[in-house]
Amino acid sequence: MGINTVLDVQNIEKHYGKPPNELSVLNKLSLKVKRGEKIAIMGASGSGKTTLLNLLGGLDDPDYGSISVCEKNWSKLSISERAIWRNQHVGFVYQFHHLLEEFSALENVALPLLIAGQSMISAKETSAKFLTSIGLEGRLGHRPSQLSGGERQRIAVIRGLINKPSVLLLDEPTGNLDSDSAKKTLDLILQLSKTLSMAIVLVTHDTFVAKNMDVTYRLMDGRLEEK
């Protein structure tokens, strides 16, 4: 696509409440993320990390400043345009997998492709290939309750990047896993981000996870400071 800057964040502010009890969460925060770049964001609980991820993905709007994904400013898009652009360019993975219990692993992964307009046959074929590539070919028909925590999280990662987004936003993706499952999940994220030339913005408390990123920032007093 030729766009090197995937995320461009300019002087954003986010406040909750009203004076005199107003809480300033983000304060003139700026950030640029290039294609394929891997960013870790650390910080104390309540410092605004999840708020920042929601803003980056266009799920919420800053009170001030601008956020562009692949040269499109979220604030300039209608709700429907925003949903389409998000589906094409942004993937999400959370600490808790958020898989739909009534659907199989294959169906959960296929959902973003169906939303993007692919046929059921094509979506399932693509999803099966991704799941097979990470050794889960024997779990395609299993529902989340029939899977281990590590399997559920790796399936959530595949679902987040099945549309080959420009950037994958991850909120504590290994925070709810044992050490072996956490390593497998991190390895998967690193492998596929490289294969797909996909940018990563990852919120974590885990210094080992952060060390595997290209740059680590700490969110303090509403701003990002490079560690």
Question: Can you tell me about this structure?
Answer:
The model has no long low-confidence stretch (mean pLDDT 86). It is globular, with a radius of gyration of 18 Å. The strands form 2 sheets. A 6-stranded mixed sheet has the order 6-7-8-3-9-10. Helix content is 35%, strand content 27%. By secondary structure, the protein is an alpha/beta fold.
> How many β strands by DSSP?
10
Strand order of the largest sheet: 6-7-8-3-9-10
Mean pLDDT: 86
Shape: globular
Q: What is the CATH C level class, in words?
A: Alpha Beta
Characteristic key phrases:
7 helices, four-stranded antiparallel β-sheet, 27% strand, 10 strands, alpha/beta, 227 residues, Rossmann fold, globular
Question: Helices and strands in order, then pairings?
Answer:
Layout: E1 5-16, E2 23-34, E3 38-42, H1 49-56, E4 64-69, E5 72-73, H2 79-89, E6 90-93, H3 105-115, H4 120-133, H5 149-161, E7 167-171, H6 179-195, E8 199-203, H7 207-211, E9 215-220, E10 223-226
Parallel strand pairs: 3-8, 3-9, 6-7, 7-8
Antiparallel strand pairs: 1-2, 1-4, 4-5, 9-10
Helix pairs in contact: 3-4, 3-5, 5-6
Q: Outline of this structure?
A:
35% of the residues lie in helices and 27% in strands. It is an alpha/beta fold.
